[in-house]
Amino acid sequence: MGAFRALKVLRPSRPIHPRGVRLTGYLAVDGGASSGIPWLDTAGSTPVEARLSRSVGLPGPLPDIIGLAVRIPSGDAYADLLLASTGSSPLGRFVLIPRLNIARSPLTTMMPYRGAQGPVLLAARTTGQRPTPDHSGRRTPARLPASLPAFRRRLAGRAWPMELSYASPLGPWIRFGTLTLTVDPDQGQEDLRFDPVRNPLPTASTYEWAAELRRGSYAVARSPRHNETDERTR
Q: What is the superkingdom listed in this entry's lineage (predicted)?
């Protein structure tokens, strides 16, 4: 928390994930899974908004922890799904890992949701080279650089396809759907922020210990400095 407060002093508006790339796309759930969270187990698709960012905000040539925040419509409101670059093994999925190539990195929730059958982790992983929806022949590159300007250039005119999976904390990853994103041509709303505690996934709940861990850092992020009044988080 001390390091987080130091970043708050340096960047009062957005201490972590200071800059990002806005994305739009679709999330599709296959249906038929048995995660214990009905939303993950019921077929359907929905448009989404997303933001890719670098957690610490290190210079582009250096590796950084990658964050992908996805906003999902949920009735009259919305749900926020936050993913970060980790490993995928039973232990590695709980370790944040700085990356240079986003396409080779699993992105996981790291903290579990509460399902009917116990804790559930979620993950997204690039599925490889795919044609763009407009059949232009351009394919998703095998390498997606973690530098935000380079990421935008590399993904320009292409789709970024990902496979969505769920797992128990130590169990195998099981596919439940896909997420396909493209760079939003309108990058103007950089103030788009996300909060998975206030905006949980449909039909999923959060363990209180996990919510408390998030609330501590979010309280610092929301606290006004230098006449700031923005009460939103990442």
A: Bacteria
The type of residue at 107 is: L
- Segment 5-18, tens digit of pLDDT: 443 334 445 545 47
Rounded CA separation 12/5 (Å): 9
The pair phi, psi for residue 153, each rounded to 5°, is: -65, -45
* Confidence (pTM): 0.81
> Is 115:38 a contact under the CB 8 Å cutoff?
no
CB 83 within 8 A of CB 124: yes
Amino acid occupying residue 203: T
What is the C-alpha to C-alpha distance for residues 16 and 7, in angstroms, rounded to an integer?
7
Which domains are delineated in the chain?
22-206 (2.40.180.10)
Inter-CA distances, 231 with 6, 7, 143, 196, Å:
19, 17, 36, 14
Cα Dmax for the chain: 51
Helix or strand or coil: residue 208? helix
Q: Who contacts 151 (Cβ-Cβ below 8 Å, separation ≥6)?
A: 21, 52, 102, 144, 145
